[in-house]
Design goal:
The structure holds two protein chains of two kinds. By secondary structure, chain A is of the alpha/beta class. Chain A has a domain at 1-67: 3-Layer(aba) Sandwich (Rossmann fold). Chain A is built from four helices and five strands, in the order βαββαββαα. The model of chain A has no long low-confidence stretch (mean pLDDT 91). By secondary structure, chain B is α/β, with parallel strands linked by helices. Chain B folds into five domains: 3-90, Histidine-containing Protein, Chain: A; 102-138 and 264-356, Phosphohistidine domain (Glucose Oxidase, domain 1); 153-256, Orthogonal Bundle (Enzyme I, Chain A, domain 2), CATH 1.10.274; 380-657, TIM Barrel; 695-834, 3-Layer(aba) Sandwich (Mannitol-specific EII, Chain A). In chain B, the strands form four sheets. In chain B, strands 5-12-11-7-8-9-10-6 form an eight-stranded mixed β-sheet. In chain B, strands 13-14-15-16-17-18-19-20 form an eight-stranded parallel barrel, surrounded by five helices. In chain B, strands 21, 22, 23, 24 and 25 form a five-stranded mixed β-sheet that branches. The relative contact order of chain B is 0.07. The chains are: A alpha/beta, B alpha/beta. The A-B interface holds A 10-11, 13-18, 20-22, 25, 38, 40-43, 64, 82-84, 87-88 and B 737, 740-741, 743, 745-746, 751, 753-755, 789, 791, 795, 797, 801-802, 804-813.
């Protein structure tokens, strides 16, 4: 499966990046391709282009704050979870995608 | 013909008891009547009455006039002018005003949520104390239980006079026995209230006109003055009511042989004393060995009782309404004078918090004292002598005890202030010799008298000046006053036989001034030799660099003098033509103008080119931000306030001279003082460590038994390491973050974090707990490993945040976490955290 994701937490210092790493790690394990955009203390990194989003099947939002530039995701199925869930229970997140 | 002296009231705190008592002393020396008129408010006061002067409710800047009338009015007028110019401006001390009430600041977590009964007041004297409460009541001015005995009016007047006499004698004895300083000053102020002619006159008049007993008349008169003062706009003056009540109570006791209504408390063990209010005499009557802390329901930070508590280093919290009624005798109390808190019957957790707090604060104090005691030398071995400024022998000893490597500026003006007759040669000799001896071989630079101009001295008959800063002051008036300067130079020369003294002249602008002084010194040396007095013929002489002209004749001056000292305050003012007391131009006053920094470079390089040495003794020397610049300049010495030595030395010792030179070249090329200052701040932050985590911030064993304790501990680790400036604010920010969702990440690891202005340097602290603690409700996975990330509020998307983002990513990998959890020494933890990316 082709996935895109956005992670963002209130202070943007730690959980944004932990969630991103966890999503990448777990996707790899399940054989999915994933690109994760982080919206944290360093600003927006690894930014998703409209093409990348349009080419994906599902977008995962692992966020505790509103996603910036959310209009990019108007046409795609979005699964929204908490940042903690992404970090602690990544498997259950991927179970939801099927 | 009456004499009038107009002047502007100079004292910051207005006319309160201490300056008033000095004023009354000075006025009392003359037979003429001396009337003090506040032309702003129109109030008039008897200049020989402290109370009447205080009741004039005069504030700083009020225009005033003295009217002097009587047979010795000429002499009195000269004397009072001298007093107003020389002595009076020094009669007040700067109040150390403790910070705003604790109300606005977050409480430490350990004190919240019903864990303790916490009362907030005003921290009137810093420090932490814990002891059982002893309730005190002050001695109230009140009639004896049997009522006032009543005699004839004349008998009552006689009773009053005898009581005053007895009280004065007792006070004088205590003044003689008290150490110099605050305690003595306050007792003297009380003596002047007791001996006040308006007060005594008021009491006697009341007895004669209303035929009441002496005690009643005394209370009525005291009430009258207390009411006048209570109406004053200044808090400081209102707090003087306590002094009047205090003195009245003691006077009543002296009149009737009673002890007043307050019970005498004999402290036998350490106690926190709690009272509604406490007069200075009540406080002084306590056995201070047993007073751990002081809690007052009424009163602020400027009452004499609060001032005494600060002088004795006793933690004190005041202004907690009703506290004397809510505390039980012997109740366990903690006084937190830094935060302005009193904790009643603290629970175990609160006690533990304060034990840890005290351990931490004492570690911080010790580390600063250790820094102060180390030599002033950069990390790569460039020496920068860190000396202290002083104005008395006591300050010299205190400065050396506090880590000074010399006295870079001994101001002598103070010896001439606070007295009507200038000190003679012998008296000065004794002072300078004592300073030389207490320095045990280290240098003491004595600056000759820097008076005149803005510090007018009527006895020198200097006419009023249009522009005193550009006027007749310091070295410019020595030639016209040979007796004055000769006495001082002879005293310094004779004292030079006892240690390493140097002579420094202020306000030099031209070569001939220096030559004249050298000539004078040679003559005095010859005299001393003929007299057979010992002195050091090789004594070094130097000049202050305050006037920019000096910078352009350094070659000539270096042939005449041995050293230079930059007076950065005056040099900045003269160089930029900015009077820093003028608030319209004050923003221009900063030594960080690139032009000024270039001037300093030209001066320092010029002096060194001619083989002489140079120091700096202005406020810039005590600015820790500027310390790297001094290493960059290669200046030989800086001299600063003794309390700043530890902080400045710790900066100097972390600097590398080559980096400081690069910093200097960088800022000298900048265009604005603001950009210079921010470059210096950046340099200072980098000095505190580019490393996010150090051995100091990793603790692999901890007895913290709750989440609260563990979080406080990681915050305190960074506070003790000098990386967090405001631990309470940072703790609060961490808990605010925990509220959004707890930062436990499973596997026994939590990463509490925050971004807060209380963080000085971006940091990571690591804490491994001896036994795991619950992190969030309903979470079965307790935490035993904390990685605390503290980010300064000003941090932008910089290198540190990138490292932390990388660390966060690595933490989700089991092998990385496992390695951290199992680390045996801090070094392993540091290595793991500093890895650039995940290694599998």
């Amino acid at each position: 499966m082709k996935l895109v994701a956005v992670t963002a937490c209130p202070t943007g210092i730690a959980h944004t990046y932990m969630a991103a790493e966890q999503l990448e790690k777990t996707a790899k394990k399940h054989g999915h391709a994933i690109k994760v955009e982080t919206q944290g203390s360093m600003g927006i990194e690894n930014e998703l282009t409209q093409e990348e989003i349009d080419a994906a099947e599902v977008a995962i939002f692992a966020v505790g704050i509103p996603v910036r530039n959310i209009e990019r995701f108007a046409k795609i199925r979005v699964v929204e979870i908490s940042v903690q869930d992404a970090i602690k229970n990544p498997e259950s997140v991927f179970a939801k995608l099927a | 013909m009456a004499q009038e002296i107009p002047f502007v009231f100079p004292l910051k705190n207005g006319m309160h008891a201490r300056p008033a008592s000095r004023f009354q002393e000075a006025a009392g020396a003359y037979r003429s009547s001396i009337t003090f008129v506040n032309t702003q408010t129109g109030t008039r006061a008897n200049g020989k009455s402290t109370l009447s002067l205080v009741a004039s409710v005069t504030r700083a800047g009020d225009p005033c006039t003295l009217i002097i009338e009587g047979e010795d009015e000429q002499e009195a007028s000269r004397g009072m002018q001298r007093f107003l110019a020389d002595e009076f401006p020094g009669c007040d001390e700067d109040l150390v005003m403790p910070e705003e009430p604790a109300g606005r600041r977050p409480l430490p977590r350990a004190l919240r949520g019903g864990a303790a009964r916490v009362e907030r007041g005003i921290g009137a004297s810093g420090g932490i104390a814990r002891a059982p409460a002893v309730l005190l009541s002050r001695v109230e001015p009140a009639p004896p239980p049997a009522g006032w005995p009543k005699g004839t009016d004349e008998e009552e007047v006689a009773r009053f006079r005898a009581g005053v006499h007895q009280f004065e004698a007792a006070l004088r004895a205590r003044i003689a026995g008290a150490p110099r300083g605050v305690e003595q000053d306050i007792l003297k102020a009380h003596l002047s209230i007791a001996a006040d002619p308006e007060f005594a006159g008021g009491v006697e008049e009341t007895i004669r006109t209303t035929h009441v007993p002496a005690g009643e008349a005394l209370l009525a008169t005291a009430r009258h003055f207390a009411e006048t003062l209570s109406a004053a706009g200044s808090v400081y003056i209102r707090e003087r009511v306590l002094d009047i009540e205090d003195v009245s109570a003691r006077l009543i006791a002296a009149l009737y042989g009673t002890a007043g209504t307050g019970e005498r408390v004999q402290l036998t063990r350490r106690a926190v004393c709690v009272a509604e209010t406490l007069g200075p005499s009540d406080f002084l009557a306590l056995d201070r060995r047993h007073v751990s802390g002081l809690v007052l329901a009424r009163g602020g930070v400027t009452s004499h009782t609060a001032i005494l508590a600060r002088a004795f280093g006793i933690p004190c919290v005041s202004g907690i309404t009703g506290i004397h009624r809510s505390v039980r005798p012997s109740e366990d109390l903690i006084v937190d004078g830094d935060r302005g808190l009193v904790i009643l019957s603290p629970a175990e957790g609160v006690g533990k918090f304060y034990e840890r707090e005290e351990r931490k604060l004492s570690a911080i104090r010790q580390s600063l004292a250790r820094q102060a005691g180390l030599p002033g030398v950069s990390a790569d071995g460039r020496t920068l002598e860190v000396a202290a400024n002083a104005a008395s022998v006591e300050e010299v000893s205190a400065a050396f005890a506090g880590g000074a490597e010399g006295i870079g500026l001994f101001r002598t003006e103070m010896l001439f202030m606070g007295r009507e007759v200038p000190p003679g040669e012998e008296e000065q000799y004794a002072i300078y010799a004592e300073a030389a001896r207490s320095a045990s071989g280290r240098p003491v630079i004595i600056r000759t008298l820097d008076i005149g101009g803005d510090k007018p001295v009527p006895s020198l008959r200097i006419p009023p000046e249009e522009n005193p800063f550009l006027g007749y002051r310091a070295i410019r008036l020595y030639a016209d006053h040979p007796a004055l300067i000769n006495a001082q130079l002879r005293a310094i020369l004779r004292a030079s036989a006892h240690g390493n003294l140097k002579i420094m002249f202020p306000m030099v602008c031209a070569l001939h001034e220096v030559r004249a002084m050298k000539e004078r010194i040679r003559g005095l040396m010859d005299d001393l030799e003929r007299e057979g007095s010992a002195f050091n013929r090789a004594i070094e002489t130097g000049i202050m660099v305050e006037i920019p002209s000096v910078a352009f004749i350094l070659d000539q001056l270096c042939r005449e003098v041995d050293f230079f000292s930059i007076g950065s305050n005056d040099l900045t003012q003269y160089f930029l033509a900015v009077d820093r007391a003028n608030k319209n131009v004050a923003p221009l006053y900063t030594p960080f103008h690139p032009s000024f920094l270039r001037l300093l470079k030209q001066i320092i390089d010029g002096v060194h080119r001619h083989g002489k040495w140079i120091g700096l003794c202005g406020e810039m020397g005590g600015n820790a931000l500027a310390a790297p610049l001094f290493l960059g300049y290669g200046i030989d010495e800086i001299s600063l306030a003794p309390s700043l030595i530890g902080a400045v030395k710790s900066v100097v010792r972390r600097c590398r001279a080559d980096r400081c030179e690069a910093l200097l070249s960088l800022v000298i090329a900048m265009e604005t003082p603001e950009s210079v200052e921010s470059a210096l701040k950046e340099f200072a932050a980098a000095l505190r460590g580019t490393a996010l985590v150090t051995e100091e911030t990793v603790r692999l064993s901890s007895g913290s038994a709750t989440k609260e304790e563990a979080i406080r501990e990681v915050v305190d680790i960074l506070h003790a390491a000098g990386r967090v400036d405001d631990p309470d604010a940072v703790e609060d920010a961490v808990w605010l973050r925990e509220q959004t969702y707890p930062t436990g990440m499973g596997h026994g690891v939590a990463i509490p974090h925050c971004k807060s202005p209380g963080v000085g340097v971006n940091s990571i602290a690591v804490l491994r707990l001896d036994s795991p603690v619950a992190w969030s409700t309903g979470e079965e996975d307790p935490v035993r490993f904390l990685i605390f990330i503290a980010i300064a509020a000003s941090a932008k998307g910089d290198e540190h945040l990138k490292i932390i983002a990388g660390l966060a990513r690595r933490l989700v990998h089991d092998d990385f976490r496992q390695a951290l959890l199992e680390a045996e020494v801090p070094d392993t933890v540091i290595d793991l955290l500093e890895q650039k990316e995940h290694r599998t």
